[in-house]
Amino acid sequence: MDAKQRVGEAAAKLVGDGQCVGLGTGSTAKYFIEALAHREKEEKLLLTCVSTSNASEALAKSLGLKTVPFARVQGIDFAADGADKIDLQLNLIKGMGGALVREKIIDYRAKEFVVIADEGKLCKRLFGVVPVEVIPMAANAACKELLGIGAQEALVRMQEGREFVTDNSNWIVHARFREIKNPKKLEMEINEIAGVVDNGIFTKNAKMAIVGNENGARVIKPVRG
Predict the structure, then answer these.
(1) What is the pTM for the complete model shown?
(2) CA-CA 20 to 30 A from 127: which of 68, 94, 119, 217?
(3) CATH code for residues 3-121+203-214
(4) Distance CA 124, CA 180 (A)
């Protein structure tokens, strides 16, 4: 069993009967969804699920989980989602798969949001590529303005020779930063750029992470101060 499967299964064990569950997106979240579907089938948990992407919704439905649109739920009890980078305060960089906007809508609103990842995602401070979802007409201007607030480079994400299109019919800009000393400030600065829908810096609501390696999984809590 690899690290991603370990943490996905560990997170699925935390879900309670009758809960509304937010389903993350990506390779680690896939294991969570699979383990959750197995638990519901075996234990008849009567779950309702909301998905952070079309791909996660399709997987959940194929495994027999009940999925509903976010607009139809009164609240989200539990959400589990992966991360590309995790710092000591459990600030995150997420969304390299392009689902960052829906991930943030759900993960920020969950009563309990658990981050699941392999230990290689841990770092003292965030750095590297931050995905930014933009309205297509604003992409070039947003790239210039991202450089103006400290990005080393900002490029529209391409896939098979064309602009990558999100589930929201927008584009993704990959903005590369050196060490991010104040993630909350940068999250806000990026979102103030006209034409930006949201970005992949997550600074709210993650109170626990389950990280794993080939030998097991462990829980980490944010380091304060």
Answers:
(1) 0.96
(2) 217
(3) 3.40.50.1360
(4) 10
How high is the mean pLDDT of the chain? 96
Q: What is the SS3 string spanning 111-123? A: EEEEEEEEHHHEC
Domain locations along the chain? 3-121+203-214, 128-200
Closest CA to 22 of 96, 83, 76, 65: 76
pLDDT digits (tens, 9 = 90+) for 128-176: 999 999 999 999 999 999 999 999 999 999 999 999 999 999 999 999 9
Question: Which residues are marked as active site?
Answer: 103
Rounded Cα distance between 7 and 211, Å, is 6
In the structure encoding, which two tokens stand for residue 34, read together? 């699979």
CATH class of 128-200: alpha beta
Residue 116 token pair: 């699941």
pLDDT tens digits, 5-57? 999 999 999 999 999 999 999 999 999 999 999 999 999 999 999 999 999 99
